[in-house]
From TrEMBL, chains A, B:
This is Tryptophan--tRNA ligase, cytoplasmic. One of its GO terms (biological process) is translation. InterPro entries: aa-tRNA-synth_I_CS, aa-tRNA-synth_Ic, Rossmann-like_a/b/a_fold, Trp-tRNA-ligase. It holds the Pfam family tRNA-synt_1b. Its EC number is 6.1.1.2. NCBIfam families: trpS. Keywords: Aminoacyl-tRNA synthetase, ATP-binding, Ligase, Nucleotide-binding, Protein biosynthesis. SUPFAM superfamilies: Nucleotidylyl transferase. The lineage of its organism: Eukaryota, Metazoa, Spiralia, Lophotrochozoa, Mollusca. Gene3D superfamilies: HUPs, Tyrosyl-Transfer RNA Synthetase. GO terms for molecular function: ATP binding; tryptophan-tRNA ligase activity. Belongs to the class-I aminoacyl-tRNA synthetase family.
Length: 389, 389
């Protein structure tokens, strides 16, 4: 996976032609997220275009009813906002039938930052709540194909990033983390499923879905089935006792949906189940926040103006960050009220955020420091997990 | 590999547009071999178009000088007629430096017929003469992608065909036979090399080389690097002690050359050696021979005419078969003379051929019957061979 939760300003990667004209609609695919409007991505429109379903109050109520506990704040606050077939997964759960979780990470940087961790924080909640196996794909092959990286470097980053993922607290007895470059040479079912998928998808289709062109490498063209294959339980014979009928739920950022639209399209022709999905919005870019202070702050231009007119939480990045990371609903609501009224100043809001982030970061660093290479190796070994099928 | 030595009449697979107009030149790629002229493929033109080199008297003399023995009749009689970098391989051999052989088979039918065995008969001679390791790729993935076959069926055919290949007499201590579907899940270096190659080849290039179109599956588009990868010794870490600098010589039918033009193009950019090749002509189709008796016989239309004008060995399929399978030069030359003069009748020629073929077939069947599943498994296990690097 390329972009797990972070909205990056990728205008530099757009062609001149795209950059010059005004966009009629948001561009959202695994490699480009560009908004057509200053207000940012229009997620409701995206749901319409992609054909997914909104996570509404009724679905949230059903999750709470079925699991007997309040949903995670990332769900409650609309950060995970869209889904496909989530009701089917809940049906399974109600009937005590098994399913599994699949998510991933494109290992392109040495250390993961908090934005990268958002989908994993939510995935950990899903695993704990539903007590199901989790497979985490490290697409080191993808990063090799798209970036100026060697295979060894991409694979090394996969292991480094695995430490951050493990530090999120996933149960070692219920979690497999795997690097594509390694798993391909360990478990023949991976390549077999890739062959099955690849036979059913044409170049025309991947051009339409992913925007591939004639001068793209055949490595890129061949990649989507690699990300699709873990949606099928037969890709993990050690875990699922060679069963191919176990449903899969994929938590991911909405930009990864194209892969799974393709997967859902081929699944019935392979006699497989379509994977279900829960989609998150993008994490606001920290860089934009720092550089473009006024555009991304919702505070008044002067102290007087702020006290008089109040701040705008809708566009304030510090406030948005708090919705991702501050767990306490009551406190967050108080901050929203006080900032909106002008009582809480921008500096105070930022101080709140810094306190929350510093705590999260230092706790994460501490946990990560305990993750040895030996522990990484255990998580990354194809093996049976603590479930019988 | 799709077509190892057999010329098939694949007009049925051509597009209507191609079928309607007269061909300006022969079509020769891994899936289509169609001649523009009734005389058959013009191999000299093919050498020019492909940019390979003719195997001339001087090269043959050098091989005999260097190896100290007469060349195989398939070389002597121009059935292996074209090469790339064969002089480099002979330089290596003279300097007592190692190289290895790579050939393959697309397992699409239950049993291989004699035409399919021609490249293996020649490869066996190469292995015995140069005393080098041989790797044989069974492209069961390719057959799954191109044909209406399941993965299991394609893989089963790979094992069946391996028996025929083993029956050719390859030294078990010097030969690895591998199925793509199996080897991919056993040896990570295979996929790693595929990634490396795939990154360097664009869709435009494979369209130009292989004629892929927009409605071809991405499985087909992704396949050429799979056939290319065994050209690099790093694909076989067990055999070559992880060395990536060992030269490769590929005996194959000329229709497989597009794969290796692509391979030779990317090799320097991967810091790898370009594979050397020896190319064969196509084995005349037995089917055409049976059905279209007159067109493919070089005999006179009547007994009188034959006795008066003589037969034409150039176009007589029975005679062509003898050039492939009759080892005795003196006897073959006598037959050529007698048939050309009209002394030897078409029926006699066919009788000669049947005798030769029956002997070959019965000997082959006997050897094949001795190849147990256990022996196949031994040949197909990734392992060190009887060479140290």
């Amino acid at each position: 996976m390329s972009n797990t939760g972070e909205m990056e300003q990728k205008v530099g990667e757009m062609s001149v032609a795209e950059g010059e004209q005004e966009l009629e609609e948001d561009i959202v695919d695994p490699w480009t997220v560009v908004s057509a409007s200053a207000k940012g991505i229009d997620y409701d429109k995206l749901i319409n275009r992609f054909g997914s379903s909104k996570i509404d109050a009724e679905l949230i109520a059903r999750i709470e009813r079925v699991t007997g506990k309040p949903v995670h704040h990332l769900l409650r606050r609309g950060i995970f906002f869209s889904h496909r077939d989530m009701h089917f997964i809940l049906d399974q759960y109600e009937q005590k039938k098994p399913f599994y979780l699949y998510t991933g990470r494109g290992p392109s940087s040495e250390a993961m930052h908090l934005g990268h961790l958002v989908p994993f924080i939510f995935t950990k909640w899903l695993q704990d709540t539903f007590d199901v196996p989790l497979v985490v794909q490290m697409t080191d092959d993808e990063k090799f194909l798209w970036k100026d990286l060697t295979l060894d470097e991409a694979n090394r980053l996969a292991h480094e990033n695995a430490k951050d993922i493990i530090a999120c607290g996933f149960d070692i007895n219920k979690t497999l983390i795997f690097s594509d470059l390694e798993y391909m040479g360990q478990v023949p079912e991976f390549y077999r499923n890739i062959c099955q998928i690849s036979k059913l998808v044409t170049f025309n289709q991947v051009r339409g879905i992913f925007g591939f062109g004639d001068s793209d490498s055949i490595g890129k063209i061949a990649f989507p089935p690699v990300q699709a294959a873990p949606s099928f339980s037969s890709t993990f014979p050690h875990i699922f006792n060679k069963r191919k009928d176990l449903p899969c739920l994929i938590p991911c950022a909405i930009d990864q949906d194209p892969y799974f639209r393709m997967t859902r399209d081929v699944a019935p022709r392979m006699d497989c189940l379509k994977p279900a999905l829960v989609h998150s919005t993008f994490f606001p870019a920290l860089q934009g926040h720092r550089i473009n202070k006024y555009a991304f702050s919702g505070g008044g231009a002067t102290l007087e103006e702020h006290k008089e007119k109040g701040g705008n939480c809708e566009i304030d990045v510090s406030y948005q960050y708090l919705t991702f990371f501050m767990e306490d609903d009551t406190k967050l609501e108080q901050i929203r009220k006080d900032y909106t009224s002008g009582e809480l100043l921008t500096g105070d809001l930022k101080k709140e955020l810094i306190t929350v982030l510093q705590k999260l970061v230092s706790e994460h660093r501490e946990k990560r420091a305990q993750v040895t290479d030996e522990i990484v190796k255990q998580y990354m070994t194809p093996r049976k997990l603590a479930f019988d099928y």
